[in-house]
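Consider the following assembly input.
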Amino acid sequence: MDALPSDSWLSRIRIVLVGTSHPGNIGGVARAMKNMGLFDLALVSPRCAPNERDAIARASGADDVLANLTTHHTLAEALTGCTWVVGCSARSRTLPWPMVTPREFAARLPGELTAGGEDARVAIVFGREDTGLTNDELQHCQTHVHILTNPQFSSLNLGAAVQVMAYEAHQCWRDHQDIRDEHSDTPFGIEWDHPLATQDELEQLFVHMERSLIALGFHDPENPRQLMPRLRRLYARARPDRMEVNILRGIASAIEKAKR
Amino acid sequence: MDALPSDSWLSRIRIVLVGTSHPGNIGGVARAMKNMGLFDLALVSPRCAPNERDAIARASGADDVLANLTTHHTLAEALTGCTWVVGCSARSRTLPWPMVTPREFAARLPGELTAGGEDARVAIVFGREDTGLTNDELQHCQTHVHILTNPQFSSLNLGAAVQVMAYEAHQCWRDHQDIRDEHSDTPFGIEWDHPLATQDELEQLFVHMERSLIALGFHDPENPRQLMPRLRRLYARARPDRMEVNILRGIASAIEKAKR
């Protein structure tokens, strides 16, 4: 498992929470952030203390994020040094504003951070548990982001909303890494334990399989129906490795032996 | 804001939680599900009660998901009727298994649900807060999904993990609203001739297969090595349809008859 480099651009994403009420939510946010390689947390006029028991319990080891958070009286202060500010908004507003999905947000991140220079930060601003962000606060944001949800039950938990945004940022960062695990390039998505069988090994398997099924009395070559094509299709989809071919041939041999 | 149609295929996704300890997590999962239009929650041997105060508080209005959840003694029972079972796995295992990202999982959903027929369910299985899923439980899954995280702090909260998977499913559902091709969209890229086998049909197949291989003298349960896990993995990749399961069970019956 690779390490997250300390100079990852993920560390330049600031999560800003406005007027949070529940310490447990601050802890949940800290955990979601650290899980996805984000560390910069800013609180604006919190309505609870971020070092309460519930915050530490829900942070579940992301104590460093809690210890290093900053607290601000105004949103403007919390956004110092940020070149792109994105406000999380559940509702449509009277005044339309540029809007992205979380995925579009993530896709724009590398360019925004490059454009902003080495010290630039991108902020994602989240509102109060009950009333969200005010219109004035949303107008501090260049862009709004809306997480599509079930319209009949649309209000995400604060930690869940941060989780979605941080997840999208993290996946984008992964996609931009040029260092690719050289082994994961199998049809199965991960390094495999045995090499795939070759086409000729598979042909030998099918010959052996058919012979054993005839010996077993299960397959009648005079009335083959679609048995062998169906078995071929089944194993073709599975892409057997060499060990699996050996197992299937072992079974075929045992059948032949039993019938001898 | 549009409504979520009650026949959305999102309602055919089952979230399965194995051995959950904290009622608050069950509540958080219920909320994350309902936010994303998922309603089918199954618990396997929970180590807490899903109607405790913390569960209801964290569900925050997703009471209907809690009220309708089902509880099971075994994972196999919770997977009845499911045609695609995906296990959430943080660790790499000794026996490699087909692996997808959450986004790849979502991309495959419409096809999997089409292939399984109208009653088919897709299950996503999540393990215990402390120890995840056992190897045996992971081997009940056709596919594993791994959420990429900060390698130095990789353990997601249970609700957060469900949130990520449900979010990906929901976004995919949204993306597919306008473009519907009901037939070419199976796991195999074309319309299929038989419905996919359900998880319980596959379990019965494995029981029958094992019994016949013991009768054949090929498999020694006292010295099983990795035979059954390897066969499970092979057929998990192939995603057998119902006709193929019938063929394989026919072979197993013929073997038993030959040895009688």
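Chain B touches chain A through 67 residues (CB under 8 Å). Ask yourself how this observation constrains the way the partners meet.
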